[in-house]
Structure to design on (279 residues):
């Protein structure tokens, strides 16, 4: 149990990354094209050189010169062809790169070791509020197919806003999120052992007092916190109303009956008025 405390650090961030694992992968339609085309063109090059260099010479020239040049050339051409053409596509690609980097760090159990402690704490707090929102909106009522349109709109907007907020925070913090200094593995092990043995938190980085350029990240974190509180409150109120209607189902029947009686009374009044006019 010596390292149990260390493993629990940034658990909100870890869960957030697990839930967004799919965002660390971006489709690369050019990869297969490069591989197949390189093999085909290399084969053509081999047979073209066969008459001049012979079997062995052609094989060596193709393997060590032709294939690398063909692969690199095709890669550059396709990379330019699939380069994002608009701001939205560029953002998706950039976020995939950041998520992929964090995902690898998480799967290697190096979030505590590699991330700047101060920025990671801020990111972990943002992840906690993101999780609050998604947990509040993940219940049976919010995921049912017959969810009323207005509540569906609230759910979709809250989920989209929280995800965009997390993306903004990651973009703001990404350039300084990882520690600048690199340490050998044995130093990591010794530091981890001493910190757990003495029950000490990791040493704070020089960014313990965040510079002004990180103020936007703080503001996003505060708004995310407010949104989480509002969503949780709305979810509680909705569940309370649903529970009341489920237990006391007569309330809906009374409303329907009262509405029907009101309609009948209005119709009778209107009919009486028409009869008086006709007389």
């Amino acid at each position: 149990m010596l390292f149990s405390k260390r493993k629990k650090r940034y658990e909100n961030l870890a869960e957030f990354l697990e839930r967004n694992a799919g965002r660390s992968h971006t489709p690369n339609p050019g990869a297969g094209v490069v591989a197949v085309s390189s093999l085909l063109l290399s084969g053509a090059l081999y047979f073209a050189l066969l008459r001049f260099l012979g079997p062995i010479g052609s094989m060596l020239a193709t393997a060590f010169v032709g294939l690398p040049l063909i692969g690199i050339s095709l890669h550059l051409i396709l990379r330019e062809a699939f380069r994002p053409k608009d701001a939205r596509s560029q953002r998706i690609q950039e976020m995939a790169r950041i998520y992929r980097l964090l995902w690898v760090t998480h799967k290697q159990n190096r979030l505590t070791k590699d991330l700047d402690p101060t920025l990671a704490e801020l990111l972990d707090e943002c992840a906690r509020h993101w999780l609050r929102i998604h947990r509040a909106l993940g219940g049976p009522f919010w995921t049912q197919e017959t969810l009323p349109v207005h509540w569906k709109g609230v759910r979709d907007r809250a989920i989209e806003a929280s995800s965009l907020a997390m993306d903004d925070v990651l973009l703001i913090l990404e350039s300084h999120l990882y520690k600048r200094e690199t340490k050998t593995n044995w130093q990591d092990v010794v530091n981890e052992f001493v910190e757990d043995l003495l029950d000490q938190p990791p040493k704070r980085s020089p960014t313990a007092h965040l510079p002004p350029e990180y103020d936007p990240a703080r503001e996003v974190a505060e708004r995310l916190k407010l949104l989480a509180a509002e969503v949780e409150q709305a979810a509680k109120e909705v569940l309370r109303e649903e529970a009341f209607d489920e237990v006391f189902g007569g309330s809906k029947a009374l409303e329907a009956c009262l509405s029907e009686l009101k309609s009948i009374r209005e119709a009778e009044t209107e009919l009486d008025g028409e009869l008086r006019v006709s007389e």
User: Anything to note?
Assistant: Confidence is low (pLDDT under 50) at residues 1-7, 193-208. The chain is about 75% helix and 0% strand.
